[in-house]
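Hey, can you fold this?
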Amino acid sequence: MSAPIDLEALRRELHAHPEVSGQERATAARIAQELRALQPDELLTAVGGHGILASFGTDPQGPQVLVRCELDALPIQEVNTMAHLSTAPGVSHKCGHDGHAAMVVGLAEKLAEQRPGKGQCHLLFQPAEENGAGAAAVLADPRMQGRKFGLVLALHNLPGYPMGSVVVCKGAFTASVNSLVIKLAGRTAHAAEPEHGSNPAMAIARIMEGALALQHNDPEGDHLRVVTVVHVCIGSPDYGIAAGYGELHLTVRCWNDEELRELEQEIEQLARNEARRHGLGVQVDPCFTFKANRNADAAVERVIQAAKATGHAVIQREHPFKWGEDFGLFTARYPGCMFGLGAGEDQPALHNPDYDFPDALIPHGIAVFEAAVRDFLAS
């Protein structure tokens, strides 16, 4: 057996060389290098883009379990000063996908040391989670067709929770999320004579006000509605021209897909009404869609037992997290569980420019994953 993988060094190497969604070529190549040394029973690359699927076990008729992690980073400028600082301007691992990937490489190492005698464990290193495109692309890959998993698992580190605590929620674990781009087309005019054009400014202001009034941002309630303005653009910085075009970009989120669709329809109708009132053309385009991640009760119980068996405290939530996660496409198709792993109570929040995944969390993730996987394969 070769020397153990230095997972902390691997994680920091990945952190120093981040790549955004859809561009994870070097990240995938580096992980594939480690996996090849472990000699998985099957290794697929370029899955759904730059994804990797490493399988351990040679019994396709036995139980099948999939463990998924992510590869991509975010378009955020890092402000830290540590030695493994991001070398890519404007790009950094501010969600901890570098740590998640290191955990699953560590799980691969455990499975290589003691390969499943019954069934198979498949490790998916997924591209493009942050923009919601990766899971769909992986599931559409021809080499994934016909595969059936009895259990799918994923985790996310959670700053603000005690280090190593396992956070679970039955039913939805993450919200249903969509983004809306509202495009309003009018007609430019001389800035001195705006009455001769159709300026979308007032319509954008009224749509923004009306959309925000539709929200009910109560994370402890059963009918969450969050509307967030993320970008507004109108006209151009040419001071003799009254604007003739504008866009309003929103994210909307609810606990389930059905209520989200209702909210989207209300906002779209609001936009069409205002466009008609102001004589504007209107187009509403959805993008960056994340289905609610719905956990199966039996899968949650398996994770709870794995946490207890490995000495981890379990925290059970009554309501989902408000962020989106494209693992929801997997749990919509297969029984599964996404769970949280506490990253420490004093850590910067996810997507903060000073966030850095805590290396001390790596063995905790490996232990819980391995316990849940081996328990499932033995069932």
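Oh, and this one too while you're at it.
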Amino acid sequence: MTAAHVIGLIAKYHASGVVIDTNLMLLLVIGTHDAERIPTFKRTIKYSKSDYTLVLDLISRFARRVTTPNILTEVDNLSRQTTEDEHASISVSMSRILDSLVEIYMPSETVVGTPIHARVGLSDAHIITLADQHLVLTDDFPLSNRLESAGRDVINLNHLRL
């Protein structure tokens, strides 16, 4: 993915916004809590502090940062796999991030009724539905491949790493 392509996607979706997938939303929550925890927390160990900075920089270029209740529930559950004394601080970090998000709700019954649900599950099916109007930011190869195959725009973090 070239820099010019990324710049074009940012321009195209600046106003409508970017959907941040679960893993990268978790990276934002843990990094906001304590960037030093990124390489030591089991769910973010595959990321670096520079990945956190890259995601922050990228999403700051959009007027809207989009999420779903399903993504937030997954992030909340995963972020609680830390020590109990970190939960309060992580909760504050999540609250801070929520202030900058637009949460789009779609009834689970509607999402489950989509043809893609059986193959990808609730969260990804909702993300795929949102990809009709929003750019998707993920590091999930199966999800990004599905989106690209369907002609939807997606940025895979793995393609941006140096």
